Amino acid sequence: MNPVIEALTFRHACKKFDPEKKISRQDLDTILAAGCLSPSSFGMEAWKFLVLESKQVLQQLRPACWDQAQITDASHVIVILARPELVTPGNEYVKDSFMRRGLPEDATLAYIDRYKWYMETEVFPEMSTYAWCAKQCYIALANIMTAAASMKIDSCPMEGFEKDRVETILKIDTQKYEVAVLVALGYRAGEQPPRRRHTKETLIEYR
Ligand SMILES: Cc1cc2nc3c(=O)[nH]c(=O)nc-3n(C[C@H](O)[C@H](O)[C@H](O)COP(=O)(O)O)c2cc1C
Fold first, then answer.
1. Domain map (residue ranges) of the chain
2. Which residues on adjacent β-strands are paired with residue 78?
3. Looking at ligand 1, which atom is closest to the CA of residue 65?
4. pLDDT tens-digit profile of 194-206?
5. For ligand 1, atom 22, which residue shows the shortest CA distance?
6. What top-level class would CATH report for the domain 3-84+128-185?
7. Is 18 in contact with 186 (CB distance < 8 Å)?
8. How many CA atoms lie within 13 Å of 200's alpha carbon, on the beta-carbon side?
């Protein structure tokens, strides 16, 4: 079987982790590398990966995450933070991001203008900068889960949390960072339930 499809077949939203099993630092580094290597619109990388491993912190966090057991049973929880302030048009970071491409100055300036135009005409009428950054964070989320699955490590993506409460508990500087999504990582305890998916015929169309 294709190794990516094999990993995606192994992956389930794990509801029950074995609280005794820990992910090695080496495997965790590989999982985080997959997050860092993820693509983002205009290459902005407007994210940060906050890795929680302290049982005490995870115990504190659980009630703000709908009291879901994955938070305390998982080996690690990665909080993917969006960085809307960083990528607001006009921020020096935006300029630096385009400059690191090493293009001639006029091409860099054209990119900066195009970015501002794109954000103002396509993004802002539809969503906040936070929502735009969060979309990118979900790409990193997917890569993190697939990388984990490729090493037979289980995961659960988690949107079931109270954002403000989580940010307060984790002492997040919300002027700069906002929680996009969480992912619990560890090893399954027992069998996973059967997967349910719509048929390919209903999901795929060729034209
Ligand atoms: C963005 C996102 C957020 C999710 N949040 C939760 C969650 O808070 N708790 C949970 O148990 N499952 C959560 N899930 C898991 C979904 O319920 C699950 O992926 C879906 O039912 C399909 O099952 P599968 O992933 O095992 O194939 C989430 C999934 C995604 C993609």
1. 3-84+128-185
2. 51, 183
3. 8
4. 999 999 999 999 9
5. 13
6. alpha beta
7. yes
8. 1
